[in-house]
Give the backbone structure.
Amino acid sequence: MRERLNSPTVHTVIERTQPAFSLELPPGDFAAYIFDCDGTLADTMPTHYKAWLTALGEYADKFPEAMFYELGGVPTARIVELLNERHGLSLPVDSTVAHKEHLFLELSGEIAAIEPVVTLAKGYAGVKPMAVASGGHRRIVMNTLRALGIADLFQAIVTAEDYHRGKPSPDPFLEAALRLGVPPEKCLVFEDTATGIAAANAAGMQSVLVPPPLRFPKAAV
């Protein structure tokens, strides 16, 4: 059964010129496809990082870009906990997460599709059951999917509220498979991070690594 969605929030999607790449799928007769959201379906990672730096304020230097990408797929609250643990900080988890997510929503006009992946998802809509399994909170993930106009492609949308252990634990993908009614070994996962691939492996699922979009500096005005 398709999940019921709340009234959509309308956002403008900025179209970006992205280098074309092809996705090579492993051989096999897969019964369902499961997609990560950020960095896989949507080119949101730079926007998320911008929101993080603003939310962290004077502690922004404690979260270098390399660490941000290393933690791709890890739930937002867990990232705050890790920053506290690694740097001896006392950032309040709930309020830091809420501030960061508010900032991301304000910047969501920058969201763009990762076209090869979205095109594939659209091609299999109605042909195979599909799900999204994300480390983000539901309102953030739904905002992104609606901004791209693809929320209705998926029969299940699993977010941080739906499991106890985030990636690299297999829980997000196992929950998605359960909701689709498909055995884990019959699911193919699309992910953009090592953390997500590790989670897929732990779930007993094959996976496709989505390469990051190439980024070019903006021309000076």
User: Anything to note?
Assistant: Helices lie at 45-56, 65-70, 76-87, 93-106, 115-124, 138-148, 171-180, 194-202.
